[in-house]
Amino acid sequence: MTARQGTIPTGTPSGTVSGGNFSAARRLLAVAGVVLATLLAAAGPASAHNTLIESDPAEGASLDRAPDEVTLTFDQPVQRGAGDGVNQIAVTGPDGGQWQRGQAQVDGTSVTTALHPLGPKGEYVIGYRILSADGHAVTDEIRFTLTQHGPGGDEAPGQPADAENQADSDTDGGGVPVWVWIVAAVALLGVGVTVALRAGSGRS
Ligand SMILES: [Cu+2]
Description:
By secondary structure, this protein is of the alpha+beta class. It is built from four helices and eight strands; from the N terminus they run H-H-E-E-E-E-E-E-E-E-H-H.
């Protein structure tokens, strides 16, 4: 202590302490910046919605034999969510009726639904709503055409009313979005830096 004061004639002890704490706060800020950058880099890929990369039947396919199920494959895992109906696939026929059978099943990046034996030829719309890896719901549709009458009857086993009932029971599923964690981390770091700066100014 005394030796140090001797080497810096114009400096005061309090000035030295204050300077030390200031650089400590700057170091903390730098660390906070690195942590933030790392968090954002890690969150980047996960914060994008799931994208449909493959389907069976394929988008725009013309089929002379009726498929007995529909499988949609995404670029990221589909969340199962809580309870039935979180992930839905509805297959609407040319008559407007519903041809899907039972609940859609999630298997990793794929969602599958069984079909009643399709009947009328014409365009079928596969509407889907799935829970993305990032916690958001993704909704879209693809189409295929049945060029020959299928083994089923002309009338869809499920009527359009079923689809409306399903839509009413919409839930957003569980899962905390990644951005919530980022905001929480930034808030915590902000508190830490503020406390460090106050501690520094309080001692000078
Ligand atoms: Cu999203």
